[in-house]
Amino acid sequence: MNNVNPASLDKPYLRDFYLEKRKNLSQCLDRKTALDDEIQTRLVISSEYRNSDTVLVYMARPFEIATSMIIHAALANNKTVGLPVCLDDHRMIFRKIISVADLRPGRFGILEPPQNSEKIIPDEHTLCVCPCLCCDMNGMRLGFGGGYYDRFLSDFNGVKVALCYGDSVLPAIEGDDFDVPMNVIVTDSFIRNIR
Questions:
Q1: What is the sign of the dihedral through the CA atoms of 180, 184, 188 and 190?
Q2: DSSP H helical segments within the chain, as ranges?
Q3: Nearest Cα residue to 110 out of 145, 82, 86, 74
Q4: Closest to 139 (Cα-Cα) out of 155, 157, 162
Q5: Pairing of strands 141-142, 134-136
Q6: Of 28, 111, 134, 148, which has the fewest Cβ atoms less than 10 A away?
Q7: In the chain, where are the structural domains located?
Q8: Torsion angle of alpha carbons 37, 42, 45, 50, nearest 10°?
Q9: Residues 6+ apart with CB under 8 A from 48
Q10: Is the backbone of residue 183 left (phi > 0), alpha (psi -120 to 50) or beta?
Q11: May I ask the CATH architecture of the domain 11-193?
Q12: Do 11 and 175 touch, CB atoms closer than 8 A?
């Protein structure tokens, strides 16, 4: 990704700016794969991952940071793994998966666990891996605009982790009242613990 900085910190502008950067990066598949692999590796070797019993993680779309390595590692490490299911009321729950082979296209065409999969009730040993377009050094995350994660995380007491490209971390993003800051940022060049 290039190191051109956004001209404004306005949220709609930032969302458009970083979506465009993601689309451009997706055209350079080797570079994107290398960055995504580095981010996933950093997460999987982190103490936050090692200390978790349950990992809640998204199934990445082509322009998002990949998560397949995280999913396969967590399953291999006998952790409980949950993927999100978006509900009609703009809320989200996580359902347990045993294998990625069981996933089916759901809302927005994203692969989801079957409806009869067990709903996961998070606790303090749960790690929630969140997508973002950009974030800041204080853990504020700019997502894709649906608000699903902020609603889910509003009463979440586990560890909140944002996956972000290193050149998409800003000094500060203005948060709204409903925005939930992350505890950890994992990028291709560093991990930042905020707590």
A1: positive
A2: 11-26, 29-44, 47-50, 68-76, 148-153
A3: 86
A4: 162
A5: antiparallel
A6: 28
A7: 11-193
A8: -110
A9: 127, 159, 161, 183, 184
A10: alpha
A11: 3-Layer(aba) Sandwich (3.40)
A12: no
| Residue reference for tokens 């978790």 | 52
Give the separation between CA 191 and CA 193, rounded to whole angstroms.
7
Of 136, 176, 129, 117, the C-alpha closest to 153 is: 129
pTM over 0.90: yes
Question: Which residue type is seen at 114?
Answer: P
Task: Please name which of 85, 84, 75, 68 lies closest in space to residue 54, comparing C-alpha atoms.
Answer: 75
